[in-house]
Write a structure and sequence with these properties.
Elements (H helix, E strand, L loop, with lengths): L3 H31 L4 H20 L3 H18 L7 H22 L8 H12 L4 H4 L4 H4 L14 E7 L11 H11 L1 E8 L18 E7 L4 H6 L9 E5 L5 H10 L7 H7 L5 H13 L6 H7 L5 H12 L15 H28 L2 H24 L1 E3 L1 H4 L2 H12 L3 E6 L4 E3 H22 L3 H6 L6 E10 L2 E8 L6 H10 L11 H5 L22 H11 L3 E7 L3 E9 L4 E9 L2 E6 L3 E6 L10 E6 L2 E7 H4 L11 E7 L2 E7 L1 E9 L13 E6 L5 E5 L1 H15 L1
Parallel strand pairs: 6-8, 13-21, 16-18
Antiparallel strand pairs: 1-3, 1-4, 2-3, 5-7, 8-9, 9-11, 10-11, 12-13, 12-19, 14-17, 15-16, 17-18, 20-21
Helix pairs in contact: 1-2, 1-4, 2-3, 3-4, 3-5, 4-5, 10-14, 15-16, 18-19, 19-23
């Protein structure tokens, strides 16, 4: 009997696995839309659905099993060629996958009730129309098939030898080894079967009940061909060792099979019997001969003497018997709870803080040996930090692939022809960022399709293809990740944006804004240029929400507007939210950490600069650099020092200077949220504890740049 914790662990594993499987279903359906006759896609779709059903059955989730059963039957009919795969069936499959995801989510909450029973019945009824007539009435195809005629045993004519070593994840994938034997029995007669179980650990403490340690050696009398026999193992073929020897195979064939079998430690007779080189009767006869031998003959010699096995086969089996079992390297993946990874990152963060404190202490004491040890610890810690952060990195393809459906369904709603292009799906990003990035991207993609792309007639009149294009791309740049959402539509109508902003009192009619500033007004709360409110847009909350979500991730959004040719929204984000490389500065007695990725250079502030000046401009290599005083910006007490420094930060082409009192150099730090009590603090992304025990605030650089833009607008 499972405990509550064990059951919860199994359930969480099922939910995580099912999420991956549903993504595979989406990918398979998308491929089938493009190539409906793709056997690999329909097999992958069937395999994913079958695995969900098997896993749900093991956990007793009948709600999921009953719904998947009908869906699986339809897919089986398609796979077997009894049902064609047309657009309505693909659309129905999409709806079934959506509902299946809902049922799985309901199962995860512990609810045994169907959240939408009417929808389940409607989908089952729709699926029922695609089933063969006998299955609609509850009669399976196997029940209708004629029984296989009893075949005579004995003799090698039409007798195949099948060697199978199941993958260790067979049970976890929802399969039963006995089911494959039953399938073989439908196409012939199993005349001999040997279970290979020598991989089961001798120490029961090392035995894992979820791991399959089994293999089979089967003799099958059948008139079927090799392709039909292979079909019995179709859904596990990728990870299964399978060799099929035809009737009347030669000695060399068995030698080759012995060479290919996974390493085992077994007795000679078991090896030869397992691969079908001898029969059980021949083995017993050889054992009797060995027992009666006065000279103490070996079993192999007895087998050769009675002509039961060829000397070459016995010799090769002896070599395999002498081999030691080697640990296998499956090269697979280990599923780890995200909570455990978060705990690991937090512990590494604490190590970073502790190491920084030790380094500061070593510098204060001016102890060279202590400093050397601290430096060595720092190097090892840097490696641990990079490795642990890589554990949380996932490819953007995990989120990009979801947009095929978003684009397809939105295009149908808008009656537009839209093609989605994906680039940089292999670009990696912190998992915590990916989870929070999906909703903002959905807003921006839908906005591009609704506002940006013209209808087919308008595009044709403008000399463009009737089919619009939306491109999602991701790439790394200067320690940041950049995500672009680009369309080839009409671009942002800046005149209409200005008109709407004036009418809502966002700006006055006398304000003179450049094109970039006008474009950024679309992020203002309540400002929308849509002519009518629809399910997709028009309420003026989407883009404002996007900006808030991106800035909450310490990122920023840029707009590259090209009137008549389209628009590109560019998101810049840090690679991780956990541990960062920062630049430590101080103003008065307060320490601040600026993420190093945003810092371009540090210069000495001009002496002519007024110390009480809140903001302004200074000349840097012939160009005007806007700056703000950190002391004035955060209203910090104290007198300014005789010398100040300017930290230059940059985001794309936008630059600004931060006037600070002292520079303390680079530092590795862990960003900690400040909590709801301090949510109102402007331009602060979080806090950290320095090695000295003092608290340093992490600057929200995108927020600072927004403040600089507001300052520039006020000056102009």
């Amino acid at each position: 009997m499972l405990t509550g914790d064990q059951w919860q662990q199994l359930l969480e594993g099922f939910l995580a696995e099912s999420q991956d499987l549903m993504l595979r279903c989406e990918e398979s359906l998308r491929e089938l839309q493009e190539t409906p006759d793709s056997e690999s896609a329909i097999n992958e779709l069937f395999r994913a659905i079958h695995t969900v059903k098997g896993s749900a059955g093991l956990l007793g989730l009948d709600l999921v099993v009953h719904f998947v059963h009908d869906f699986e039957n339809v897919l089986m009919a398609v796979r077997d060629g009894h049902q064609s795969l047309d657009d309505p069936l693909i659309e129905l499959s999409y709806r079934c996958c959506d509902h299946l995801a809902t049922l799985i989510e309901a199962a995860g909450t512990g609810s045994g009730a169907d959240p939408d029973p009417e929808k389940s019945e409607r989908l089952k009824a729709a699926l029922n129309q695609y089933l063969p007539s006998q299955e609609r009435h509850g009669i399976t195809a196997s029940a209708q098939a004629p029984a296989v005629e009893a075949l005579p045993a004995g003799g090698d004519q039409d007798t195949w030898h099948i060697s199978v070593r199941f993958h260790e994840d067979l049970f976890r994938d929802g399969f039963d080894p006995a089911s494959f034997v039953r399938f073989l029995s439908q196409i012939g007669q199993v005349t001999d079967i040997n279970l290979i179980d020598n991989l089961i650990p001798d120490n029961l403490k090392q035995f894992d009940p979820e791991t399959c340690y089994l293999g089979l050696e089967v003799r099958l009398y059948t008139a079927a061909g090799k392709r039909e026999i292979e079909d019995a193992f179709e859904f596990i073929r990728e990870n299964t060792f399978l060799r099929i020897l035809p009737p009347d195979s030669k000695t060399d064939d068995y030698l080759q099979l012995l060479a290919e079998l996974p390493d085992t430690q077994a007795r000679l007779g078991e090896i030869l019997l397992a691969v079908g080189a001898i029969t059980d009767a021949e083995l017993q006869q050889a054992l009797s001969l060995q027992a009666s031998s006065v000279s103490g003959k070996r079993l192999g010699e007895c087998l050769v003497e009675q002509a039961a096995a060829a000397p070459e086969v016995v010799s090769d089996a002896l070599k395999r018997q002498q081999k030691k079992t080697r640990p296998s390297d499956s090269g697979g993946f280990l599923r780890v709870s995200a909570r455990k990874l978060d705990d690991l990152i937090n512990q590494v963060g604490e190590l970073v803080v502790a190491a920084a404190g030790a380094q500061m202490l070593a510098n204060r004491r001016q102890d060279p040996e202590f400093s050397e040890v601290c430096e060595e610890i720092h190097q090892h810690l840097e490696h641990i930090r990079e490795t642990s952060l890589q554990l949380r990195m996932v490819e953007m393809g995990e989120i990009f692939n979801r947009f095929h459906r978003v684009v397809r369904e939105t295009a149908d709603t808008l009656n537009k022809q839209i093609r989605l292009e994906l680039e940089g799906a292999e670009t990696e990003l912190d998992k915590s960022l990916v989870d929070r990035l999906y909703d903002p991207l959905v807003h921006m993609v839908r906005n591009a399709m609704d506002h940006g792309l013209e209808g087919p007639d308008e595009r044709t009149a403008a000399g463009k293809p009737a089919e619009g294009r939306v491109r999602l791309s991701a790439f790394h740049e200067s320690g940041m990740i950049v995500i672009e959402i680009e369309d080839d539509g009409r671009g942002i109508n800046l005149a209409r944006v200005r008109e709407k902003a004036i009418s809502q009192g966002v700006i006055s009619a006398d304000d003179e804004l450049d094109d970039k500033a006008l474009a950024h007004l679309i992020f203002h709360p309540g400002l929308s240029t849509a002519k009518a409110v629809s399910n997709l847009s028009g309420r003026g909350v989407g883009m404002d929400s996007v900006r808030q979500d991106i800035e909450a991730l310490r990122g920023s959004v840029e707009i590259d507007n090209r009137p008549g040719r389209g628009c590109c929204m560019r998101i810049r984000l840090p690679l991780t939210l956990a541990i960062i490389d920062g630049f430590l500065v101080s103003v008065a007695d307060q320490f601040f950490v600026i993420p190093t990725d945003w810092v371009t250079e540090c210069i000495e502030a001009p002496r002519a600069l007024k110390r009480d000046q809140r903001s302004g401009y200074l000349e840097l290599r012939g160009q005007a650099l806007p700056f703000i005083s950190m002391k004035q910006h955060f209203s910090l007490p104290g007198n300014p020092p005789p010398r100040s420094s300017m930290v230059v930060i940059a985001q794309g082409e936008e630059r600004a200077g931060l006037l600070v009192d002292e520079l303390h150099g680079e530092i590795q730090t862990v960003i900690k949220p400040l909590g709801p009590l301090f949510d109102h603090l402007p331009d602060i992304a979080g806090g950290t504890i320095l090695g000295s025990g003092q608290v340093a605030l992490t600057l929200d650089v995108p927020g600072i740049l927004t403040s600089v833009r507001a300052m520039e607008a006020a000056i102009h």
